[in-house]
């Protein structure tokens, strides 16, 4: 019988952080709205460094505005900056949705963001007229940077978006709301694909797939400002109050779903991220439960293909191999469960958050695993580094930030999650769903083959 | 080719250049449609003596490409390889800027580690000084670094932690240099204020704090060279062949000790004049070290920069060696470049980058027979724009603090054959169908010196000639 050992942080400083601050999560969520723009109420660096990070990871432009707070704002408050910021953004970009994202500075100086938004709205009405002004929805998202991490910021944003924008109608819409979590465009597309095989329409809260992976198609009709293709349209977000149910695919973002449940009686379910066979099965079952739609043969074939690949590869190359996993709590929990399905041992899972839901998910994994699982909870990459020195593993799975550590320990690293800036394609290739499982098992196995099997002996490895 | 924006010429030029693609370009009376307050931030060189409005607050809500004061301080100090760079603030300030600078090191890797005091709600209410103190002691125990730089962020400025006092106390206890950098992000709209703070930290706490064992008669410091993608490794050998000893680069591939001992150098040469002129003039004041401004981008500029140093020392032998070195270095260079020049000749360039590069690259491009049609920068001061004016041709568009929407419009209007900028602008440029060359923190190829220039020519050539641009234009 295996155990889950939770190891908490015993250091003051954070060394090589695994998490970043709340506003980033909120900026990510707002970017998933069609013609949606985040407006960060803070210093210029608060938007610049996130835009830089998104550009580096997604290889796409990221339009995020900022109110450029300076010393005078620190003394007199940020009212002037916020009101003119909202006004300029409305006049020049005419977004459908503007997400006003607070930061540590605007939270500490105690700006009445809600009040300023009202004043800004009056200004917009004066300058642009009632009709034009009413087309621009403004969502207030409070994300003090010194509370929790970017996962909480994502959750706050999703809740603020549905609280502000969802509108109940008399009729149900036969759709399912999905809160995907901080995942890649490829993952969101795969979730939509799974839903389509279930003949189900989904409302993504929100859909960052096209905005962060947009076609290069110059055309004469293209208007300024340039908006990336896609994102969840405002109409669909409004309609999220009439859906059959809401599924959160990450344990850290369920307050939006709870809010919809409380206000509009829409049942909600927090599932594990659908990584691997069982988690994807659970997702499919939840969709079936909400919609009553049957599981199609096509879907069963996709599941069969993944199982086939597992049969081909797991016992030969993967069984008994020790894995270290780090990064996003929802992804790491899913990955830990998947490697367990492959017969690998998730020896250590390291996350930067202290989330009780995550610990519960990991308890489930430990129960399924044959060996002890250590969880580094609320920790950083240095903690994982020290751990691995004492307890070596065969492969690491996580983002690019662990690359130097992997090199030092001569342990191969398979890159997933955010940020990945030193490999290409990670944002396009899904890791969720049965197809994502195929990508994962191929990627992990090839990484293992590169390191542990001599090329000249490849025939022996068939 | 000179762009004359006021005449009909432009229409025909653009039409013939782009073939069947998007020929309907309206000739604007003004530069582009933008906010009223932003119109004066753009001007065309030669039209009058004016320079664009600059060094002002960005318009809130427009998507500025600017960074913050903390970012400015961090980029200057971060290349010091054997120091801990501890960010006193919420986790995001460290997490988003950790290891984003492509400065390489020939030794220590400590500077690539991300350190944060991770301020939480409780610290914001009760103050973060204790946490900072604990963190410094702990990090000193774990790493025994040569120095710990402590950067203050917006939060620290607002809650009023006295980081200077904490650093002083921690230094007494640990015996390790603990250097405060008062870089609250909101201090200024111009991140150059951060560069200055970083220079102040070095002047006040580092430079001159240790005596060198011996002083080379021909020793120099290279200031404002951050060894991005290993640029320094193309420069130092050149000076060494001349018989000049590079005491230290500030701050590329440097160590705390090297910088501490650099005050006896005979000469300071300044590469990035945006971030580091201030440091050079401070050193001139305090240590009477004379300063020469140099530029290692392009053959001509590199040659000038080598000669300037040998002429400064006035040693006949060295002058002879330098001329020989220059001759041998550029002997094969022209042929190498000619093959790129063939394709690049006549192509147009837009630069939107740090103020230094906005004019320092002009000569390099003219050596490739390319013409700058637009140059701009996020944080330019009047003197920077004067420099641009001195370097570019008549008709060049000069832009201050262009936001992402203006950038996209300008790129579409003027259709340069390449944009030189950093990563944030890169994908805006590509989406507008304009090839792009990275010239910022995260570039992966060294561009300095003679060999660097060949790399530069190759990278620009690759960007312009890659077949994707033919494909993307075929179908609209």
Describe the structure concisely:
With 462 residues, chain A is α/β, with parallel strands linked by helices. Chain A is 47% helix and 14% strand. In chain A, helix 17 links the parallel strand 14 and strand 15.
Describe the protein in words.
- Chain A: Its EC number is 1.18.6.1.
- Chain A: Belongs to the NifD/NifK/NifE/NifN family.
- Chain A: GO terms for molecular function: nitrogenase activity.
- Chain A: It holds the Pfam family Oxidored_nitro.
- Chain A: This is Nitrogenase.
- Chain A is of the alpha/beta class and 462 residues long.
- Chain A folds into 3 domains: 4-16 and 297-459, 3-Layer(aba) Sandwich (Rossmann fold); 22-148, Rossmann fold, CATH 3.40.50.1980; 175-214 and 229-291, Rossmann fold (3-Layer(aba) Sandwich).
- Chain A is built from 18 helices and 15 strands.
- A 6-stranded parallel beta sheet of chain A has the order 1-13-12-11-14-15, with helices on both faces.
- In chain A, helix 9 (185-197) links the parallel strand 7 and strand 8.
- In chain A, helix 8 (150-165) runs parallel beside helix 11 (255-264), helix 12 (276-291) packs antiparallel against helix 18 (433-452) and helix 14 packs parallel to helix 15.
- The radius of gyration of chain A is 23 Å and the shape is globular.
- Chain A starts with a strand and ends in a 10-residue tail after the last helix.
- The mean pLDDT of chain A is 94.
- Chain B has 476 residues and is an alpha/beta fold.
- Among the domains of chain B are: 69-190, 3-Layer(aba) Sandwich (Rossmann fold), CATH 3.40.50.1980; 221-327, Rossmann fold (3-Layer(aba) Sandwich); 345-443, Rossmann fold.
- Helix content of chain B is 46%, strand content 14%.
- Chain B contains 21 helices and 14 strands.
- Chain B has helices at 9-18, 69-77, 91-95, 121-126, 129-143, 154-159, 163-174, 192-205, 232-242, 256-260, 273-287, 299-313, 316-331, 333-344, 355-360, 362-367, 382-391, 404-414, 423-431, 449-465, 468-474; strands at 42-44, 83-88, 115-116, 147-152, 177-181, 219-225, 245-251, 267-270, 291-293, 348-353, 371-377, 397-400, 418-421, 436-438.
- In chain B, strand 8, helix 11 and strand 9 (291-293) form a beta-alpha-beta unit.
- The longest helix of chain B has 17 residues, at 449-465.
- Chain B is globular.
- The model of chain B is unreliable at 1-28 (pLDDT under 50).
- Classes of the chains: A alpha/beta (462), B alpha/beta (476).
- At the A-B interface, strand 2, helix 1, helix 2, strand 4 and helix 3 of A face helix 2, helix 3, strand 3, helix 4 and helix 5 of B.
- Strand 2 (14-15) of chain A pairs antiparallel with strand 3 of chain B.
């Amino acid at each position: 019988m295996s155990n889950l050992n939770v190891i908490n942080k015993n250091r003051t400083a954070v060394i090589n952080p695994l998490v970043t601050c709340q506003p980033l999560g909120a900026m990510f969520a707002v970017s998933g709205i069609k013609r949606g723009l985040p407006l960060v109420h803070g210093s210029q660096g608060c938007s610049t460094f996130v835009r830089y990070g998104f550009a580096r990871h997604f290889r796409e432009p990221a339009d995020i505005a900022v109110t450029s707070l300076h010393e005078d704002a620190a003394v007199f408050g940020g009212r002037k900056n916020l009101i003119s910021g909202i006004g300029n953004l409305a006049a020049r970009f005419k977004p459908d949705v503007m997400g006003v994202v607070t930061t540590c500075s605007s939270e500490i100086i105690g700006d009445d963001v809600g009040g300023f938004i009202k004043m800004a709205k009056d200004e917009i009405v004066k300058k642009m007229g009632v009709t034009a002004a009413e087309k621009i929805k403004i969502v207030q998202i409070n994300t003090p940077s010194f509370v929790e991490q970017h996962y909480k910021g994502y959750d706050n944003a999703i809740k603020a978006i549905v609280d502000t924008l969802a509108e109940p109608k008399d009729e149900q819409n036969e759709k399912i709301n999905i809160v995907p979590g901080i995942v890649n465009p490829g993952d969101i597309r795969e979730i939509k694909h799974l839903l389509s095989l279930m003949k189900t329409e989904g409302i993504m809260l929100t859909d960052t797939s096209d905005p962060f992976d947009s076609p290069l198609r110059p055309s004469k009709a293209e208007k300024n400002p340039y908006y990336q293709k896609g994102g969840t349209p405002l109409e669909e977000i409004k309609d999220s109050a009439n859906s059959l149910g809401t599924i959160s695919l990450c344990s850290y973002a369920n307050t939006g779903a709870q809010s919809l449940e409380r206000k509009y009686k829409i049942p909600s379910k927090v599932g594990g991220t659908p990584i691997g066979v069982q988690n994807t099965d659970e997702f499919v079952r939840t969709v079936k439960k909400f919609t009553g739609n049957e599981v199609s043969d096509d879907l069963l074939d996709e599941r069969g293909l993944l199982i086939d690949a597992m049969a081909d590869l797991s016992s030969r190359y993967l069984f008994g191999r020790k894995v270290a996993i780090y990064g996003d709590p929802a992804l790491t929990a899913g990955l830990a469960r998947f490697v367990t399905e492959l017969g690998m041992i998730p020896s250590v899972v390291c996350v930067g958050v202290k989330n009780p839901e995550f610990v519960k998910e990991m308890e489930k994994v430990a129960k399924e695993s044959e060996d002890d699982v250590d969880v580094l909870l609320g920790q950083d990459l240095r903690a994982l580094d020290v751990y691995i020195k004492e307890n070596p593993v065969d492969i690491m799975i996580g983002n690019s930030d662990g690359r130097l550590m992997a090199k030092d320990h001569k342990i191969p690293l398979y890159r997933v999650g955010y940020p990945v800036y030193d490999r290409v394609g990670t944002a396009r290739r899904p890791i969720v769903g049965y197809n994502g499982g195929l990508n994962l098992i191929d990627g992990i196995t090839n990484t293992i083959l590169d390191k542990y099997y001599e090329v000249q002996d490849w025939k022996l490895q068939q | 080719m000179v762009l004359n924006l006021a005449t009909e010429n432009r229409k025909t030029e653009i039409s013939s250049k782009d073939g069947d693609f998007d020929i309907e370009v309206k000739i604007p009376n003004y530069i582009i449609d933008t906010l009223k307050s932003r119109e004066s931030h753009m001007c065309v060189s030669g039209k009058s003596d004016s320079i664009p409005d600059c060094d002002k607050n960005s318009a809130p809500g427009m998507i500025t490409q600017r960074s913050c004061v903390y970012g400015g301080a961090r980029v200057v100090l971060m290349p010091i390889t054997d120091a801990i760079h501890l960010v006193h603030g919420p986790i995001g300030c460290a997490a988003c800027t950790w290891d984003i600078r492509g400065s390489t090191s020939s030794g220590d890797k400590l500077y690539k580690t991300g350190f944060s005091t991770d301020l939480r709600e409780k610290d914001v209410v009760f103050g973060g000084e204790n946490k900072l103190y604990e963190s410094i002691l702990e990090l000193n125990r774990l790493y025994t670094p040569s120095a710990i730089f402590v950067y203050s962020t917006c939060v620290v400025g607002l809650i009023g932690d006295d980081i200077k006092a904490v650093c002083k106390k921690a230094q007494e206890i640990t015996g390790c240099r603990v250097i405060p950098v008062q870089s609250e992000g909101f201090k200024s709209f111009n991140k150059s204020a951060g560069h200055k703070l970083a220079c102040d930290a070095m002047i006040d706490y580092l430079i001159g704090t240790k005596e060198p064992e011996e002083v080379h008669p021909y020793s120099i410091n290279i200031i404002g060279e951050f060894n991005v993608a290993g640029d320094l490794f193309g420069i130092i050998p050149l000076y060494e062949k001349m018989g000049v000893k590079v005491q230290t680069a500030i701050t590329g591939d440097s160590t705390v000790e090297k910088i501490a001992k650099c005050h006896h150098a005979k000469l300071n040469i300044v590469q990035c004049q945006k971030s580091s002129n201030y440091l050079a003039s401070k050193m001139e004041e305090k240590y009477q070290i004379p300063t020469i401004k140099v530029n290692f981008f392009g053959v001509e500029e590199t040659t000038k920069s080598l000669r300037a140093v040998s002429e400064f020392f006035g040693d006949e032998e060295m002058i002879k060696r330098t001329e020989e070195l220059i001759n041998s270095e550029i002997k094969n260079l022209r042929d190498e470049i000619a093959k790129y020049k063939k394709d690049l000749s006549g192509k147009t360039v837009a630069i939107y980058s740090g103020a230094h590069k906005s004019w320092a690259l002009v000569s390099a491009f003219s050596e490739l027979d390319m013409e700058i049609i637009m140059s701009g920068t996020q944080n330019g001061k009047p003197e920077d724009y004067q420099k641009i004016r001195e370097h570019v041709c008549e008709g060049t568009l000069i832009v201050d603090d262009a936001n992402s929407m203006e950038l996209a419009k300008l790129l579409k209007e003027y259709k340069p054959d390449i944009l030189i900028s950093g990563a944030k602008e890169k994908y805006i440029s590509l989406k507008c169908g304009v090839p792009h060359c990275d010239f910022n923190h995260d570039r992966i190829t060294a561009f300095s010196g003679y060999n660097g220039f060949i790399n530069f020519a190759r990278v620009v050539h690759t960007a312009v000639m890659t077949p994707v641009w033919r494909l993307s234009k075929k179908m609209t």
